[in-house]
Write a structure and sequence with these properties.
elongated, 41% helix, two-stranded antiparallel sheet, six-stranded mixed sheet, D-Maltodextrin-Binding Protein, domain 2, Arc Repressor Mutant, subunit A, alpha/beta, single chain
Length: 295
């Protein structure tokens, strides 16, 4: 195999991210024939087809997807190198990029960030979003770790490494004005206003099943996936909130939320996922191996 031409790789990455040669040409201020020629030279050099070409539409082959993952990492490191040299920071400071589902308790994100600071002095970026998006970012080496409440799909299992951090019991919390509902819990929940996670959440499905099998009618007044918003609305007395106990310790201590009861047999799992690729962020690698969540 010949030595890699990084200019060809950069053009390939731009085409892959823009979705077409024409859009890449506009971004690079080059002619389409020149870009197409260099893509062909890169494929010839690698001995692999990187794109499927059908009706002027380009889609990445399996080899192309792998090449893009490495290209993203290569050029990200290049950007970091230029920034370090520009700032005179010759002792490279680690940078950790963490993806977190918006349904993950912010307390868990805080604990992971604190643990990262104990591993090494580093800067940290937290990206919140939906699972499919975050796992794609992980595959593209745009994040180092993803915190979620479920593991990656079976189809992507070989591309990721995952481990369960904890399985946390779920309880119902509310503003102090609802404290009398604790007396006949959970039947006292019937007809009360709830602040629930949105429909695509696994916890939402588990909650609905819990109340359905016990024939307890519930009133879903508000839906939001963001646990910070759920807590805020709960503290304002707008509804009852299902949350993991560890995520509300401070709020309970201040008396802003009270615990009405624990939902028997209902738990939420928390998972930490890394990329199975060959390039590892040392801080991410240490966290993946050693970070513990004590419930």
């Amino acid at each position: 195999m010949n030595s890699l031409n990084y200019q060809h790789l950069y053009y390939f990455r731009t085409v892959a991210m823009e979705g077409s040669v024409s859009q890449a040409a506009k971004k690079l201020l080059l002619g389409q024939p020149a870009i197409s020629l260099q893509l062909k030279q890169l494929e010839d050099n690698l001995g692999l087809q990187l794109f499927h070409r059908e009706n002027r539409k380009l889609t990445l082959t399996e080899a192309g997807q792998t090449a893009l993952e490495y290209a993203n990492q290569i050029f990200r490191l290049g950007d970091e190198m230029q920034e370090a040299l520009k700032n005179g920071s010759f002792a490279r400071r680690a940078h950790l990029q963490v993806g977190a589902l918006d349904s993950i308790p912010k307390k868990l994100i805080q604990l992971l960030i604190q643990a990262a600071g104990e591993v090494a002095e580093c800067s940290i970026t937290v990206l919140e979003g939906e699972g499919d998006f975050l796992f794609r970012e992980l595959l593209a080496y745009k994040t180092d770790l993803v915190i979620s409440n479920y593991p990656p799909s079976i189809g992507n299992a070989k591309l990721h490494s995952s481990r369960m951090l904890a399985s946390a019991p779920i309880s119902i919390f509310a503003a102090p004005k609802f404290k009398n509902l604790a007396r006949k819990f959970p039947q006292s929940m019937a007809g009360q206003p709830f602040i629930f996670p949105t429909l695509h959440s696994k916890l939402r499905r588990d909650l609905e099943h819990y109340f359905r099998v016990r024939e307890i009618p519930i009133n879903i007044a508000i839906e939001t996936q963001d646990t910070a918003v759920q807590k805020r609305l709960g503290m304002e007395g707008l509804g009852l909130v299902p949350l993991a106990d560890f995520s509300v310790k401070g709020i309970r201590k201040r008396g802003q939320l009270v615990k009405l009861g624990t939902l028997a047999e209902l738990h939420e799992e928390y998972w930490l996922t890394s990329n199975s690729g060959l390039i590892h962020n040392p801080v991410a690698a240490s966290l993946f191996e050693n970070f513990q969540l004590k419930i």
